[in-house]
Specification:
Strand order of the largest sheet: 1-8-3-6
Shape: elongated
Helix content: 55-70%
Largest sheet: 4 strands, antiparallel
Strand content: 5-15%
Number of domains: 3
Distance between the termini: 65 Å
Number of strands: 8
Structural class: alpha+beta
Number of helices: 15
Radius of gyration: 29 Å
Order of helices and strands: HHHHEEEEEEEEHHHHHHHHHHH
Length: 488
């Protein structure tokens, strides 16, 4: 049970954040039901008939995990950390201490001992710092030499000095000159991981709001997207690839990589690649079946005979492919996070190492999330390309071309940077590939994610912008191809 609580805690925190987001959605829907019953009923229908239904089932499963596993988890620490989030952060002070002054009180400094992460104090003259009056230089808690920076952080040679919660500081200056004292205390809640609860909850709320906003702004597009998504999810291929992903992710935990303690990195790299490739396969297959086959089978002509334009048809098909990709990433992504967290404990046990704490498992899990986001972007870009090709070609040419685009999209930057890239012709071809085709190498950061590096949020936003621009270009090309296509 002790090992279970170690590797399950990161997933439990994810489940708690998702449950908070679900609760917010239910509150918003309840307010909407009170204010406008008709709108609330329409929202309920949209949730039940679209891709949000299986996502809701997934959120329900996470809520069950959050409730059932709570007795084994650090629930008290999480609640106390949430309550203290507004009271932590950098605490700075600057004061002028007169000459020959004892116990000059600084009242603006207060923190809990277990929340102190680092602090620094600097003074022009020698000073003695205490948390009680009457001690001065006789029993100094911290003795700061004039002109020297006193700086403590975990792992430094200096002692922490503070041994209890601080409500104020008393500074003594026995020199014949006044001194200016500057100090900074950096505090953080006992359980810093609670900051990610808001990100998880916000992501859940944003997903539902984006879906419902699209349904409200483009109802005809959303109807086509819903039908396409339901058709894709009901296909045996989607279930088969999902099962393959589940089996592969579980098997990666027990495969001996023989990497001398780096098996977790291999698991993260293999898992992210597996999920991405399976999602791209779903995108290519769905685009071929839903777009190409409907055009060749004249089903598209029947749809367009209704008040639906060609642009609405194309955008609806594209969104209908994106939703199943998102569902696959959510299902396999959650399992992937679980396997990575368990792998940390499993490797420590198999190697007879010291059992890691749950914070180490959480760090490994958190590093994966940006990689999954980038892999989702790449799958969406490939889906947009596949939709554009499907307006003119059948399934087999579509798969061949998209496979070539996938390979060349990764090789383009490598060709330019390689030794052969010094050749003028090779360099021109490499740059031409990078301009005409998506630079998929932007999404390939498995090496950094598998290691100890973190992916900044700015990179994710820039990758999102790049993906949006390329998907827009692909959709414009699809519209040009489809406008000139004779459906009769």
């Amino acid at each position: 049970m002790a090992n279970l609580s170690v590797w399950l805690t990161p997933i439990w925190l994810l489940a708690v954040g998702a449950t908070i987001g679900t609760a917010i959605l239910l509150v918003l829907w309840g307010v909407c039901a009170i204010a406008n019953r008709r709108l609330a009923r329409a929202i309920w229908v949209r949730v039940r008939e679209g891709i949000l239904l299986p996502i809701s089932y997934t959120l329900l499963a996470l809520a069950v995990v959050a409730v059932v596993a709570a007795p084994m988890m650090p629930l008290d620490r999480m609640i106390s950390s949430l309550q203290r989030m507004q009271q932590v952060g950098p605490v700075r002070f600057e004061a002028t201490i007169p000459a020959n002054t004892s116990d000059f009180e600084i009242q603006d400094v207060a923190f809990h001992l277990d929340e102190l992460r680092r602090y620094s104090i600097e003074s022009e003259q020698d000073i003695a710092l205490n948390v009680e009056s009457g001690k001065g230089f006789a029993e100094p808690l911290v003795l700061v030499e004039g002109g020297q920076l006193y700086q403590w952080s975990p792992g430094s040679n200096l002692p922490r000095a503070f041994e209890e919660n601080v409500t104020g500081l008393f500074i003594s200056n026995e020199s014949d000159l006044p001194t200016v004292v500057q100090g900074t205390f950096q505090t953080e809640v006992e359980m810093p991981e609670v900051h990610d609860l808001g990100i998880t909850a916000g992501s859940v709320v944003a997903l539902f709001l984006i879906y419902l906003t699209i349904c409200w702004l483009a109802p005809r597009v959303s109807i086509i997207a819903t039908a396409t998504a339901k058709e894709a999810v009901s296909q045996p291929l989607f279930l088969l690839l999902t099962i393959v992903g589940v089996v592969a992710l579980v098997a990666y935990v027990y495969i001996p990589y023989n990497t001398f303690g780096e098996d977790v990195k291999m698991l993260k790299t293999s898992g992210m690649t597996t999920i991405k490739v399976l999602a791209i396969m779903v995108a290519l297959w769905t685009a071929s079946v839903s777009v190409s086959d409907e055009i060749e089978g004249r089903t598209a002509l029947t749809v367009l005979s209704k008040p639906v334009g060609r642009r609405q048809f194309i955008f609806g098909k594209f969104l209908g492919i994106v939703w199943p990709i998102l569902l696959m990433f959510i299902i396999l992504g959650i399992l992937f996070l679980l396997t990575v967290s368990y792998k940390v404990v499993y490797d420590a046990r198999e190697s007879s190492k010291t059992m890691p704490n749950w914070q180490l498992c959480y760090e490994e899990v958190v590093r994966i999330v940006p990689g999954l986001v980038l892999a989702f972007y790449e799958a969406v870009v490939m889906a947009a390309i596949s939709v554009a090709i499907s307006t003119r070609l059948s399934m087999l040419p579509n798969l061949v071309i998209c496979g070539s685009v996938y390979v060349l999209g990764h090789l383009g930057p490598l060709i330019v940077k390689s030794a052969a890239g010094e050749i003028v012709f090779v360099k021109f071809i490499g740059r031409l590939i990078s301009v005409m085709l998506p630079v998929l190498d932007h999404y390939e950061i498995e090496g950094a994610i598998a290691g100890a590096s973190t992916v900044p949020a700015e990179y994710l936003w820039m990758a999102l912008l790049y993906s949006f621009l390329y998907c827009t270009a692909a959709m414009l090309l699809a519209l040009i191809f489809f406008e000139e296509r004779d459906l009769a």
